Amino acid sequence: MKRRRLARRLVEATAVAVAVAALAALALGSGAFGGFQDRAVDNFFPSAKTDPDVIVVGMDEQSLQRFGAPPWDRDVHAQIARQLTAAGAKVIVWDVVFFSGSENTTAKPKQVEQTADLAAALQEAKSAGVTTILGLDGKLQGKRSANGLPILGPVFENTPTVDAAAGVDAHVKVDTADGDGVVRAVPLVVERVDGRFVPSLSLAAVLAYRGAQLQPVINTNGVQAGGRFVPTEDSGRLRLNFASGLDASLGSRALASAQDVYDGTVNPNRFKGKIVFIGATAESARDNFDVPINKSGGMPGVFIHANAVNTMLTASYLDVQGNAAVVLWVALLALLVALAVLFLPLWLSPLVTLGLALAYLLLAILRFDGGHIMNLVYPFGMMGIAFVGAFMVKYFTETRHRQRVAKLVAQY
Predict the structure, then answer these.
(1) Pairing assessment for the beta strands 222-225 and 217-218 based on DSSP bridges
(2) Rounded-to-integer distance, Cα 279 and Cα 297, Å
(3) How are beta strands 169-171 and 185-187 bridged, if at all?
(4) 82 membership: H or E segment, kind and range
(5) Alpha carbons 398 and 309: distance in angstroms, whole number
(6) Hey, which of 99, 131, 217, 356 would disulfide with 224, CB 3.0 to 4.6 Å?
(7) pLDDT per residue as tens digits for the range 24-50
(8) 176-212 pLDDT per residue, tens
């Protein structure tokens, strides 16, 4: 009799686990609750290591008061370029586009002179062995190319004189926010309408830093960056792993004021041998985007590029748990919950279920620090469903058993 009851309970627990796992599989296949999962995981950031060779020259409020609102005169950028070259920077990256159309010598001779000064500064940097990278802007179209990449078009080019002096263009796009408006990934490579590949500022910076060819080599699973593989998700997007040392906070070692760099009052050792980004950090510049570690004021776009570089340099990549693995975890946890409900006293089974949930949460945190994103929504949600389902099974089977016993006693 006891064996039969034990076997029945095991079958009931297995049936609950299978039903719950099947329900999870259906929901995962439809993409349900993906936004909840993203928001739940956001709480685990920041988790990446901070590479000391990434620094940002910020166009901050103090600098805007002196040089005006962007775009700045190009001789200002020329002076900053010369200061960084003298300091021994290895790669200088502008999260700035020096638009064409300002080389009319009759209408705007001052701009032509400033453009020539910037081109000369970039040429001086090149002669000193410094790679300079200019931003390239445009509109990301909704459709994808035959290679599965976002299409950039129309493209807003840099002034030819400046572009020829730098020789390297990379796109500045970070506005690929998820449905909730939070940027969690950036496109490492986009494709122009003419079929040419354009690397992101971050990828171009890493390639230059490693002395690799600046033309990106891509495949379906990632990008080659200086002999090392960078895994990407759909549409060539790199999932960002944010670092606490690259958050644009005041006093950060990874942030220097553009005004101070212009004046030469920053210790040059801060830039020696490093990747230096130049971009707007002032809130008034309106170049902030919501990110997992800051959903109120947002993060400057230049720091999103910096975090992308940091993710690649430290190899702090994040991979998302596949649907099959999620279903297996759901089945295991649902089975354990069902067994606890069916075999343990009523007061003890909720405590066991809570303990299982906490253990899974701790495992998810530890795995996240190791670069693996485990699903939180489905395991926790399905544990609740398994608990209710097993409780109902237990209630109705025991009720029916009591009725049978009472009937036998009455007959006796």
Answers:
(1) antiparallel
(2) 17
(3) unpaired
(4) helix 74-87
(5) 61
(6) 217
(7) 999 999 988 888 999 999 999 988 999
(8) 667 788 999 999 999 998 889 999 999 999 999 999 8
